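Retro notes, structure queue

What went well: the backlog is down to a handful. What didn't: a couple of records were mislabeled last round, so from now on we paste the full input next to the output in the thread. Example, using Phage tail protein from Hymenobacter elongatus:
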Amino acid sequence: MDEYIGIIKLFAGSFAPKNWAFCNGQLLPIAQNQALFSILGTMYGGNGTTTFALPNLNGRVAVGTGQLAGGSNYDQGQVGGMESVTLTSAQMPAHTHQLVANTGPGNTTAPAGALLSVPAAAVASSGDEVTVTAYASAATTLAPMNPSSLTPTGESLPHENRPPYLALPYIICLYGAFPPRD
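Corresponding output:
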């Protein structure tokens, strides 16, 4: 049984079988591939006079056209996606960071580790936190806090954005049965 012209399949071989070609975006002459051109047109490239292009699925995953309820719309021939992304603070979920502090008594202007501390009386005997108003007079010599107490962390580097994969070539049927319309 002949396959329909224009059908695309995954193939486990390292060659394209007879009457098939790899979906790698290559240009084909219209004169030798009129049936396939009548199906694809110039949707994937070519000048439409002498050449047209096959879809380029190298390094891509095919997704169905249309729109899921509440999802994005995908038009035929549309390309998109990224192999890696760098998140920005606007893309992160809302969250808070706890202040890094020492619950031991703060009795020096140069505390070990340069961490914020509270007066000993501010920690209840049960170990529960007690709200303390922290301030210093203008005459106080200030000590710098440990950078990990307040500064952002991370390197803003891109991260991998792909699920586990197995690379296989997509092939397209060049010659076979012309697909009938309803």
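Agreed that this is the format going forward. Reviewer comment attached to the example: The chain has a mean pLDDT of 82.
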